[in-house]
Structure formats: C-alpha cells, structure tokens
Amino acid sequence: MAQKIDSQLQLIYQTGVDGEGNSVFKTQRYNNVKPEATNDQVMTVAQALSNLCDHALSEAVRQDDTLLVGDQN
User: What Pfam families is this protein classified in (predicted)?
Assistant: First the structure.
C-alpha cells in the first residue's frame, strides 16, 4: 500500500521582466507540508501567503513524496 510521506509547496511569483522582455520569476519553497492536508487546504494557505507578497502569484505547486515499498510503521 502506498503512503504519502512528505509534501512541499512552491509559490512562483512573476517579479518583472528582463532586458529582452522575458518574464522573471521568483520561487519560494515551504517544506514539511502535512501530507494529509487536502489540496484545497494547501491552496488556501498558498493564497494567504501570496497576499503577503508584493508580486502576483503565477503558480502554486504541490510536490508529494510517496513511499511505495518499505516499512510503513
């Protein structure tokens, strides 16, 4: 049985454009997101955190690590 063991949230902000007109992005990573948190709960936190930033949120990405085989104590 697979078990989600770790989760991370990445918030990606567009911070401006470079000299060639390409978008410039900044990523903030938050580790130790509770694996049992729902995607809706994580998105609520992402929106709250983005409200504290001066730049517009471009993407919110959740990355999960799942244990497929091993000791699942």
Answer: DUF1659
